[in-house]
TrEMBL record:
Source species: Peribacillus simplex
Biological process per Gene Ontology, one example term: glycerol-3-phosphate biosynthetic process
Protein name: Glycerol-3-phosphate dehydrogenase [NAD(P)+]
Family designation: Belongs to the NAD-dependent glycerol-3-phosphate dehydrogenase family.
NCBIfam families: PRK00094.1-2, PRK00094.1-3, PRK00094.1-4
Length: 350
């Protein structure tokens, strides 16, 4: 099938923005990769590399780096937004100033804003005027930038309130190495992608403590149970959590050495302090802020999230990691599925 060539701006030249720029350049689209670091943009244009974020990867010549957001957005109708969640409000402000056409925003970030408790698509809606914002699409799933940039087989899901926009994004990205599925459950796709980072931090901790495979399987399974409970309470379809944005992303993030969240957890489990871990990472560890947001969401929706609560105590209240695991294991006995069934029942009654 011959694809229509589009001009696309990728906002954020970190590991994920650069890897996705490579995918769409492979699909012969015109790709403008915007970053706020002039030296890095010079490197992308002169050497066709981004060594800090994707060491050893030769970028396609079709990727052009931009440090002026106005130039990057000139005549553009579709942007891929690939900055950390905490940078969204600032970067959206710059986009609002710089754009010259109504935009479809494809966000590929995995987080929830603490305090406002907004999902990323909700934050984009809140900040952006309907005069220039056409559609919001989320792209999420098990997809480490390091492997995507090596063109290893990868699968992701896209979702939107407007599924025609999601299908357009599916067409832009899909190729022999990068398979894109649509999923109509916007809430579930965003919640699954954001909350798996909490469980990956916890899995890294138990690996760092040397607890092995049983503990990790327990965390992943019971982690998925609490993600599903919160997600369903917020309106997600429970089946999404057995899909790419749910269990798929949970598996890859809890088991891969590429995961910054797992690596951060691993260092915490080995006794390092949070500040030291974040300083040494040099890349975003979304799960830390998302733990705070999910802790607040659990209170708001009155959902039991024991792993999130235990991690919250480790990250923000100085709880010792080993003690947090002991407390988790010594809670009063419970039923594996009852709470989720109750949430589903109460939703049906509403
Ligand atoms: N890496 C991955 O494999 C995947 C990541 N994601 C998600 O993508 C999002 C981005 O992550 P990722 O690319 O990995 O993160 P990185 O830490 O690799 O890169 C973040 C990029 O955003 C830039 N940035 C940060 N703050 C601002 C700002 N205020 N204005 C402009 N640019 C800014 C950074 O610039 P600087 O270099 O100056 O710090 C850097 O270029 C996250 O939500 C992550 O969860 C999703 C799937 C896979
Ligand atoms: O979301 C990711 C893979 O799907 C990336 O996870 P990390 O941010 O933990 O590296």
């Amino acid at each position: 099938m011959v694809k229509e060539k589009e001009s696309i701006a990728v906002i954020g030249a970190g590991s994920w923005g650069t890897a996705l720029a490579l995918v769409i350049a492979d699909n012969q689209h015109e790709v403008r990769l915007w970053g706020h670091n002039q030296n890095q943009i010079n490197e992308i244009n002169q050497n066709h590399t981004n060594e800090k974020y994707l060491p050893g990867i030769e970028l396609p010549l079709g990727i052009k780096g931009f440090s002026s957001i106005k130039e990057a957005l000139a005549g553009i109708e579709i942007i891929i937004l690939a900055v950390p969640t905490k940078a969204y409000r600032e970067v959206l402000g710059q986009i609002e100033e710089a754009h010259d056409k109504p935009l479809t925003i494809v966000h590929v970030s995995k987080g929830i804003e603490p305090d406002s408790l907004l999902r990323i698509s909700e934050m984009i809606e809140e900040v952006s005027s309907s005069e220039w914002l056409k559609d919001i699409v989320v792209l999420s799933g098990p997809s480490h930038a390091e492997e995507v940039s090596l063109r290893h087989p990868t699968t992701v899901a896209v979702s939107s309130k407007n599924m025609k926009a999601a299908e357009r994004v599916q067409d832009i990205f899909i190729n022999n190495n990068f398979r894109v599925y649509t999923n109509p459950d916007l809430i579930g796709v965003e919640i699954g992608g954001a909350l798996k980072n909490i469980i990956a931090l916890a899995a890294g901790i138990t690996d760092g403590l040397g607890y092995g495979d049983n503990a990790k399987a327990a965390l992943m399974t019971r982690g998925l149970a609490e993600i599903s409970r919160l997600g369903v309470a917020m309106g997600a379809n429970p089946l999404t959590f057995s899909g790419l944005a749910g269990i798929g992303d949970l598996i890859v993030t809890c088991t891969s050495v590429h995961s910054r969240n797992w690596r951060a957890g691993n260092m915490l489990g080995k006794g390092q302090k949070l500040e030291e871990v974040l300083e040494n990472m040099g890349m975003v560890v979304e799960g830390v802020r998302t733990t705070k947001a999910a802790y607040q969401l659990a209170q708001k929706y009155e959902v039991n999230m024991p792993i999130t609560e235990a991690l919250y105590d480790v990250l923000f209240n100085g709880e010792e990691v080993k003690k947090a695991v002991d407390l988790l294991m010594n809670r009063s006995k419970t039923n594996e599925m009852e709470e989720l069934f109750n949430i589903l029942d109460s939703r049906q009654q509403d």
